[in-house]
From TrEMBL, chain A:
This is DNA ligase (ATP). Residues 122-131 have a biased composition (Low complexity). Keywords: ATP-binding, Cell cycle, Cell division, DNA damage, DNA recombination, DNA repair, DNA replication, Ligase, Magnesium, Metal-binding, Nucleotide-binding. Its EC number is 6.5.1.1. GO terms for biological process: cell division; DNA recombination; DNA repair; DNA replication. GO terms for molecular function: ATP binding; DNA binding; DNA ligase (ATP) activity; metal ion binding. Pfam families: DNA_ligase_A_C (PF04679), DNA_ligase_A_M (PF01068). It catalyses: ATP + (deoxyribonucleotide)n-3'-hydroxyl + 5'-phospho-(deoxyribonucleotide)m = (deoxyribonucleotide)n+m + AMP + diphosphate. Residues 138-150 have a biased composition (Basic and acidic residues). It is an enzyme of class 6 (ligase). Residues 91-171 are annotated as: Disordered. Residues 377-514 form the ATP-dependent DNA ligase family profile domain.
TrEMBL record, chain B:
NCBIfam families: Xnuc_lig_assoc (TIGR04122). It comes from Methylobacterium soli. Gene3D superfamilies: 3.40.50.10890, Ribonuclease Z/Hydroxyacylglutathione hydrolase-like. The keyword Isomerase does not apply. Keywords: Exonuclease, Hydrolase, Ligase, Nuclease. One of its GO terms (molecular function) is RNA endonuclease activity. The keyword Protein transport does not apply. This is Ligase-associated DNA damage response exonuclease.
Amino acid sequence: MNDFAHLLDRLAYEPRRNAKLRLLQDYFAHAGDPERGYALAAMTGGLSFREAKPALIRGLVEARIDPVLFRLSHNYVGDLAETTALIWPAPGGEPGAGPLSRAGEGQGAGPLSRAGEGQGEGLAESGEGAAPTRSASRGRDLSRTGEVERPGLNGPASPGPGHNNPPPQVPSLAEVVETLSTTRKADLPRHLADWLDALDETGRWALLKLVTGNLRVGVSARLAKTAVAALGGHEADAVEEVWHGLAPPYETLFAWVSGGGERPETLNPAPFRPSMLSHPIEEDSDFAKLDPQAFSGEWKWDGIRVQLVGGRDREGQQVARIYSRTGEDISGAFPDLAEAITFTGALDGELLILREGRVQSFNVLQQRLNRKAVTAKLLEEFPAHMRAYDILTAEGEDLRPLPFGERRARLEAFVAGLDHARIDLSPLVPFATWEELAAARADPASVGAGEDADAIEGVMLKRVNSAYLPGRPKGPWWKWKREPHLVDAVMMYAQRGHGKRSSFYSDYTFGVWREAPEGGAELVPVGKAYHGFTDAELQKLDRYVRNHTTKRFGPVREVAYGPDTGLVLEIAFEGVQRSTRHKSGVAMRFPRVSRIRWDKPAAEADRIELLERILERGEREIAPGARLAEEEA
Amino acid sequence: MPLRASDLLTLTREGLYCPLGGFHVDPTWPVARALITHGHADHARAGHGSVLATGETLRIMAVRYGEDFCRTRQEAKLGEPIRIGDVTVRFAPAGHVLGSAQIAIEAEGVRVVVSGDYKRARDPTCLPFEVVPCDVFITEATFGLPVFRMPDTSEEVAKLLASVALFPERAHIVGAYALGKAQRVMALLREAGYDRPIYLHGAMEKLTELYKREGIRLGETPKVVAAERAKLHGAIVLCPPSSIQDVWSRKFPDPVTAFASGWMRVRARARQKGVELPLVISDHSDWPDLCRTIRETGAEEVWVTHGQEDALVHWCGTQGIRAKPLHLLGYGDEEVEGASESASESTAGPAPGPAGAAVDLEASP
């Protein structure tokens, strides 16, 4: 547990991806089985056990620490797990950090010994200072080990529990995970308390994060898999290929990547296959180098990229899986679509909501996402479909090495053969020149997309002779997204960035005008953008923030804004959604700075009504890339 | 009628005032007579009429503010009684930074001790704290919450050296307060056997030279030459806290951002500052030591000055010790976010009001 805790601690402070990778690799190489497997499971969301509720943890602490002091501390630190980790009275298990060993410093030849107190007295006093309820925890320890509490043990001369009882055993991560998955609810507090007693501050913090299901240390499942793969010199996709047949603690996986075992043959009859991704096309430079004849065009749908995989297990039962782009199994969230997987094969495509044959916008799809329960009402109101655009396997045959043109023909035949209302084909967009494609992109409805144009966010270009390659190879697939919406907003707050940008104010909260309750106009924040500008522009923006600061809130600065002062940022964004989390009631999708309008007076920035109109009318009614007519005037 | 503690010490706009002696202790505004506990800018200000402080503190003030920082000055020898008006004062070591002292004020058998800032943990750069039994103890409470239990400094220095070993190609930029913390970190590194040069931001140079003149051995501490920054692979560089986020620090090879401070005990604090390698090294008492010290003084009454007063006052209550918070304006912890930063924008001139309280001149790059 200690090694895992220190790994999490380092990761939590480390902003750089490569340094995280190095830390992870180092850990996986040195931690043994099954410890590293459970660590991998913890970071990839693969553990399931009885989680500890905050009230349980609070109860454990308040049995040991004055509740008033605990409350004040919690208010100050802000995080329950961290407060508990810091305040927990560690009985002897923590050299250096605990009050007992602190007094121990006084025993040495250091200047502290000049303070003149006796050793025994120093120990007792500092112990009480740190933990007014220490005697309570001591009594509990004793009852646990079955000893009878002796009179005088709690007296001031006692050197402390660590000297009378064997030091508590530091648990392994495996022990924690296995205990949590088998323990009875009533036993959970006792286990937790024992572990907290045994661990140091970092260990307690990591344990509490783990058991409360709050393990966020800035490591994605993908990054963890990349680190595991790198142990054997593999790419992350090699791990993805076998991943879904495996279970914690992944001993066969580690044996394979470390060179000591066979590749774990996936027993999953419907495994995920890593997705092929595209690069954004640069209009100014890329088109000149590309031959339109070599490419096939199709719509870029604004939905969720999914893989539908079907197969038969050993008993001959149909297995149906829906995977996200990153290989997460999301079948449970879309039972209506999973039912359509009656085939053996793997389809790549977009998950969309269709109503009466018409594709709904992403805003509609959003309402089906991140729901705890999939209700019948939800299924009825937001029926999930798949618009297929590639086929990876069919009846056990791996089609990925085939060129796109051949795969497309196989796909068309396959989908036609399915004849299922939930799965249809993403149509090709015919074009002979780049100009024709540009026209289709500007107005999809006119080129056959019809009412579905709402859910189109651009076009895709796929090289006809390209195989299906995992990852993001440069060249075969391009995306050419529709022009974004634009709004002129005023910078209101700036926050320091991370990593290389940590010395710069690089994250900007911006606002637009709305009518103030007391009359007149006021700025209301509508979003935050942290990219879209060059390094040179960042330096100028940073200087602007420093020279126009009006207030500071920790890492955040408020800058001067108002009708007569303020910096206008032209913000590009993909859409608007309702949001209860924002004061303005709207939230933008993918906002970024498209231009810095040093020239434009803040009073001429846009008003909230612009965003509300985009929201209300739906995106169809707004010509992409253009302002509303009123705004031009 | 017997003397009351409030006859010995009371609170005025300028800070703590002794009516019977006619002097202030660590006043935040210019006064006629000031007794100064230590050289940090929120306690030691320029512009007083006369100043009584330890020799080290007087010399620190002279380095920071110039030789004319006050009209007349007098050195207080540790442990020696000094008669001022109707009271006797005595300075005793506080273990906070070089020259730091507690001040005991006594009359008619009643003794009040002003702790200033203090710590009990080992510090090779200053004399250790001495317990002075008293009736009223006036304590700081910078880290006055039980979550603050500081680790052994050797563990923290080992953490830094381990990172230097793991990333030998990267410079390690360690933010540390320019008076006290920086020199303590240097001395701890030397104790750990680190014998390479420790590079200094220009703002740390004068005080570090002063420490060396006072007999603290810190080894080779060259000043960073701006043009050479990119070559300092694997170097340890000390700079004021405000500079770790500054463009100044970005010119070093792939810098690792470290910060030596008691605040690093709390993760959110470290993350807010963009610190990648928090070093929990504090020049203030942690919670166990605050509690221990209060008990050891035997004080019947405790006044809590700056920091987390509530928790300490509450704890005193549970121990049967009378306690009250003293809401002293103008004291801040010198390491609080924003404090050092504002130095570049406000001038700590001869008459800084409470607004400029936590400002440190040296923090400005």
